[in-house]
From TrEMBL:
Key words of the record: Membrane, Transmembrane, Transmembrane helix
InterPro entries (UniProt xref): YczE/YyaS-like (IPR038750)
Record-given protein name: Integral membrane protein
Keyword Membrane: yes
Residues spanning the membrane: 44-66, 71-93, 105-127, 160-193
Taxonomic superkingdom: Bacteria
Keyword Nuclease on entry: no
């Protein structure tokens, strides 16, 4: 029963993560660095976000499974296949729905706040379920151990490189204040959500 609860937490968490990213995108305030990069790659290659992110995830998955297979789990597999297509799905609904999330600065600011809160809640639920790391999240700890440097330095470098690739592929189309806040503020929001969420 506890395993079923964990799986439910993973699916709900990844769904909320995707919804949060879609709200940020529809609000025009910039998405998280990883989604921004994959949207940029999709723009250059003509692929949809779901397919672009799936392909990038597979490449990262190969790296992770060759170096630290212990962090791979059911949640990893769901993340690889599900998130990109879920963001694409929710974005389609929000962009074609009756509510214009870019109607004015107030609505955009509201979308920024709600999007980031929902995004961080989704990550918290997914991570705390403990059914495997996302490939992107697993890269920094592996490289940190291999290079003998701090996790924070490797993760910051990783995020900066991903952000740079997003800018190269699509300019500021998917990068904005939301991207910066996701990059520097998600950790604090996860800590805050953990204080109010029940344990898995």
């Amino acid at each position: 029963m506890k395993f079923v609860k964990k799986v439910i937490f993973v699916i709900l968490g990844l769904g909320l993560l995707a919804l949060g990213a879609a709200i940020l995108s529809a609000s025009g305030v910039g998405v998280d660095p990883y989604t921004a990069m994959n949207l940029g790659i999709g723009q250059v290659t003509g692929l949809g976000l779901g397919t672009a992110q799936l392909l990038v995830n597979v490449v990262l998955f190969v790296f992770v499974i060759l170096n630290r297979p212990s962090v791979i789990g059911l949640g990893t597999a769901i993340n690889i296949v599900f998130v990109g297509y879920a963001v694409q799905f929710f974005s389609g609904i929000l962009n074609n729905g009756p509510l214009n999330l870019q109607a004015n600065y107030f609505v955009m600011a509201l979308g920024l706040v709600v999007g980031i809160l929902v995004y961080a809640l989704g990550i918290t639920m997914y991570v705390d379920a403990g059914l495997g790391q996302a490939p992107y999240e697993a890269v920094a700890p592996i490289l940190s151990d291999k290079l003998g440097t701090t996790y924070s330095m490797v993760r910051t470098t990783q995020d900066v490189l991903v952000l740079a690739l997003a800018l190269v592929c699509a300019g500021f189309t998917y990068v904005g204040i939301g991207t910066i806040i996701c990059a520097v503020g998600t950790g604090s929001l996860i800590t805050a959500w953990r204080k109010v969420l029940p344990g898995v």
